[in-house]
Amino acid sequence: MTSLMRDLNEALAGVTRRAMDSLVQVSDGRRGAGAGVILHAQGLVLTSAHVLQHGQVRVGLRDGRQLAAKILARSPERDLALLDVETEDLLAIDLGDSRTLRPGTWVMALGHPWGVLGGATAGVVIGVGPRLPEAPRRGGDRSWIAVSAHLRPGHSGGPLIDHAGRLLGINTMMAGPAVGLAVPVEDAKGYLHEVMGGQIVERQESVIA
Fold first, then answer.
1. Does the active-site annotation cover 156?
2. Regarding the domain delimited by 13-93+195-208, which CATH topology (the fold level of the hierarchy) does it fall under?
3. Is 50 a catalytic residue?
4. Close Cβ partners of 41 (under 8 Å, ≥ 6 residues apart)
5. Could you say which of 79, 84, 162, 187 is catalytic?
6. Active site residue: 27, 98, 143, 156, which one?
7. Whether 112 is catalytic
């Protein structure tokens, strides 16, 4: 059993390290900052809309670089925003399929909780879909992923990943003492379709797969 747990821990830590290469910090000049995830090597970054309120947006990379970012699209209703960073050497995350999630699935949320760079927390899926009991009423018929993970300020906009490090959702908020909510990646794909149309095909085919 000890050997099994050690192998499991090493495997999860390895997956988390690789996914961290696609994690960024997003700041708009306010005190504190949120997170984001790289969708394409040429500078597409997905984050939460509520992370961006005012001021010049900057993206902090894993290697320490701080780059100016342009807001390509922002939807407070979906709590999603798409940024463009002028660089061509980023490491994009692999995309998963949130439609395959079931209660009990193990997931990890990455971000910068309370300013701690590259933090990770884990839990299991509680439920997936619209009108979850844990979801805020203002969300209407929006779909959510509810997880038993403690999301903190700085997790917002970061990736929710599966056991293979693939993107399942975008961390959004806490809905209770031990319930975190994320926007499903399938909803994010639909949003990208709307705001970029055919342009996204040239930049990352997997985004709309």
1. yes
2. Thrombin, subunit H (2.40.10)
3. yes
4. 88, 89, 90, 91, 92
5. 79
6. 156
7. no
